[in-house]
Amino acid sequence: MIINIFAVCKLLGPTLCALAVVALIPTLYALVSHTIGASVFFMMACIAFIVGRLLSFIGNYGSRNQSQIQMVLTIRELFLFTTCMWVLIAFISAIPIYMLLPDVDYTGALFETASGLSTTGATVINHLDTRPPALLLWRSILQLLGGIGFVVIAVAVLPQVAMGGMNIFKTESTYFENSSKFTPHMKTMSIAILGWYLGSLVLCTLAYIIGDLDPFMAINAAMCTVATGGMMPVDASMNGMSPFVHYSASFFMFISSCPFTVLIAGLSGNFHKLISDQQVRGYFIFTLLVALAVTATLFFRNNYDLERAFRISLFNVVSILSSSGFNLEDFTMWNPLATLIFLVILPIGGCAGSTSGGMKFFRLQVCASLFRTQLVKSIHPHRVISPQFNGHPLDVATVNSIITYIAAYFIVALVSSFVATALGLNITDAITASITCLSNIGPAFGPELNPSSNFAGLSSGLYILFSFDMLLGRLEIIPVILCLTRMFWRN
């Protein structure tokens, strides 16, 4: 057998049992706050636990020699494990949304959980202000879990998952494939990343409380922010909140879209690594320049005062680039130039190794380096020169993987746009919705799906399509596509 299914089941079991424990948080909140939903979330926890134990039993029963299975895990099993883990968690996590909201069918609930787990931030739920608080808390928790990635959490707290070695990280993000680790120990790295993530959550929550948000809103908004999810528990999103909250959100969205390992290295005293990192430096400069360009359009074309123009521009630019997708005014209604700018930056995303989605900024930097290299070779064909990143030459395998990903991104976006159009969406909605779901951004740019609306009212086929797009984008396409090919299972 090419794929060791029993080993995959053995990894999935503890992960789903851990999900059952997490589901007890909204259960307890509903009980303490005397609101509805406790029984539903407890039932979901039981389902997750039973499925997890069943998978563990299958894994243990099918393995005659447990230590041997631990040694023969290949990248195929790890790819399959990661893909199945995200899909199973999305399907199980949709149960309470489906049961608590009579106006949302199961495919809509699946879209909601896929959006939360992938930190896309798109929603199918209307009138969020009147929905059960435990359900709103669950949406925020899903974003928090999906933002950092289940693999990082699993390696940090579940010894069974760590047996995959460093390859386990590659199944959820290609960032770890060609980047140097700030620590040689995988579990230590996972714990450090988790510590940084939770520390950011605490600081962001305090900032929102200082900005006059109540504790429930502050903790939910903080989870949406540090996860760069943007799925707020109110319809107004960030509209109507104080400028202090807007600036705080912009700051935490930005740092959450920077590489975890580089930020931790900077906090550990290696500030040179933080300042000199090409990706972080380029991302900061690009974000600032785009924000200033949008500020200029609001100041000169929409007659905003300078502070408001800069604050709203900075917030929305960081929100789109970090793939948070918070709503602060409808930027498609400002002016054509501002709309075009946001359309251009829609698929870019933040830095690799962060909570943000999109194509990732470092891939564009590598493409720019390739472009410069080819220009030089056109003039000096015999000159020995190669594309570089962070001052080091890029090997052929890295360049090929980046080109493969970008090609796969546009092919998937094109196919998804065709399918969405065939399922009834107009062309603009189909294209921008496919890109925003694949990039895990949130808002689309069409006449029906835009920052002022949500994804409620779509057909079941569209919900399934966009749910697949969101999970595909979160796992950076290639691992999921591989699991669907014949060569993955036979060759």
UniProtKB/TrEMBL annotation:
- Please list the residues that bind K(+): T119, T120, G229, N440
The GO cellular component terms are: plasma membrane
Checking InterPro entries in the record gives: Cat_transpt (IPR003445), TrkH (IPR004772)
Positions of transmembrane segments: 12-32, 38-58, 78-101, 141-169, 190-210, 216-232, 244-268, 280-300, 334-353, 402-425, 462-484
This protein's UniProt keywords: Cell inner membrane, Cell membrane, Ion transport, Membrane, Metal-binding, Potassium, Potassium transport, Transmembrane, Transmembrane helix, Transport
Main location class: membrane
Give the function comment from the record. Answer: Low-affinity potassium transport system. Interacts with Trk system potassium uptake protein TrkA.
- The name under which this protein is listed is Trk system potassium uptake protein
